[in-house]
């Protein structure tokens, strides 16, 4: 092999490796649903404290796909493997975009002046087209704890 053809081989291999990285970004293997829950019934109240230790469910048409608990900052994080079936739901970005998040822990747990019933619910949206990160749109308080239909929100 001449020096010239060796150089050419290196260039070709580099281009192939580069394409590999690119297609990995497009064919996402892990999707993350993450966000913060605040201790309020009023989503416009940006000064509300975090809702710590709250149970968060990820629902698809009333079926629980996954759940999580918020940390000390009210933050929750759910990682899902694409192509895996959870409770009969095949995980991909299209199905996740139709899911809702439901906080099942009553607000009275973070503030004794708040309600013992009702839930916070939010639709979720993809942060950007090139990442597999989805975030809550806004957590709205709903008085009915049985609510789990995304179309009713
Ligand atoms: C919600 O919070 C906003 C911002 O703090 C406030 O202006 C508004 O009055 C609040 N609404 C209710 C119903 O408490
Ligand atoms: C959370 O999800 C796991 C796995 O689906 C399930 O075993 C568990 O019972 C759920 N916990 C709650 C509190 O929903």
UniProtKB/TrEMBL annotation:
Identify the SUPFAM superfamilies for this entry. Carboxypeptidase regulatory domain-like
Annotated keywords: Signal
Q: Which domain of life is it from?
A: Eukaryota
Q: Where is the signal peptide?
A: 1-23
Cross-referenced PANTHER family: POLLEN OLE E 1 ALLERGEN AND EXTENSIN FAMILY PROTEIN (PTHR34458:SF5), POLLEN OLE E 1 ALLERGEN AND EXTENSIN FAMILY PROTEIN-RELATED (PTHR34458)
Report what the protein is called. Answer: Uncharacterized protein
Organism for this UniProt entry: Rhynchospora tenuis
